[in-house]
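Summary for the steering committee. One of the milestones for this cycle was to obtain a three-dimensional model of the protein with KG4 bound, which we needed before selecting residues for the alanine scan. The sequence and ligand used are listed below.
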Amino acid sequence: MIDGGTRVLGIETSCDETAAAVLRGPRDVLSSVVSSQVDLHARYGGVVPEIAGRAHVELAVPVVAEAIVAAGLRDGEIDAVAATVGPGLIGSLLVGVGTAKALALTWGVPFVGVNHLEAHLYAASLESPEVEPPMVTLLVSGGHTMLVSMEAHGRYQVMGSTVDDAAGEAFDKVARYLGLGYPGGPLIDRLATEGDRDAIAFPRAMRHDGLDFSFSGLKTSVVNYVRKHPDVSLPDVAASFQEAVVDILVAKTRAAADQAGVDTLCLGGGVAANSRLREAFLAACEADGRRGYVPSMAMCTDNAAMVAAAGWWRLHLDGPSPLDIGANPSLRL
Ligand code: KG4
Ligand code: ZN
């Protein structure tokens, strides 16, 4: 029986964060522990899959133990275990899935596999309990850029996605080109505060053309511009590039909300930590008379509380997953 008292342990290891969290019911976060590996990967300028997998092996059990203790529970007091089964890095996913299945078997409780993208859709509802479908979420991370309409729990429609680079990928690639470091998003965000966002009119690809995104041309424009103008102010480049990304994201989100006929909009994914995106998204929601929800930074980036929440809903709607389901690096919504 799944109900508001069901305590779900969530485990997230799809990329470079080892995370575990305990929820009671779909929204009550008892604990959430995230161990980031960003320092391990920074010197390589990106996530190294082999290093990520090994770090998850070392961190998974201590992080899970910390989440259970922080929730004030003991071993026998977890009612179900949820883990991200995809999409993500296969070697990393396998660690979380294996750990979750082993714990579920040991404790004799259900295991449930969670889609990482579905988990991001639940992040906003953990901090704002009034968030309920029907709603549209702009999910923007290092690996994904999509507009998802959630008509009801468990029922989604991908309204638009990127045809080339993800938004976070564009931030990371432009930052690397400008010699700023990794991960690029927060570095560009910070540098942009010192620049003029109207200094350079970078192109807005496909702005009025459906709900799909394209960021690869924008990245190339930045590279060409800096080559042609070697003395340009880098803060101006950062601010103008960021403005172009934000402008496209917000314009398409508004169009998606119109199309879906919803008045609840949410942001999710690592790029939702971007200060200009948060500001422009909320301003657009206010101007259009919609309710806009922007999770805290901790809830925007990868965490296991959102995995446990999605796991609770999956258990509620479909019941447990069979123990022979595997990790799927290219799982879709
Ligand atoms: O969701 P996430 O933590 O991991 C996945 O990709 O699943 O997102 C990481 C991405 C990176 O590309 C990073 O550069 C970007 O989110 N990011 C940001 C900011 N903080 C993180 N992008 C723009 N502005 C930020 N403040
Ligand atoms: Zn993510």
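Key point for the committee: Residues 119 and 307 are 5 Å apart (CA to CA).
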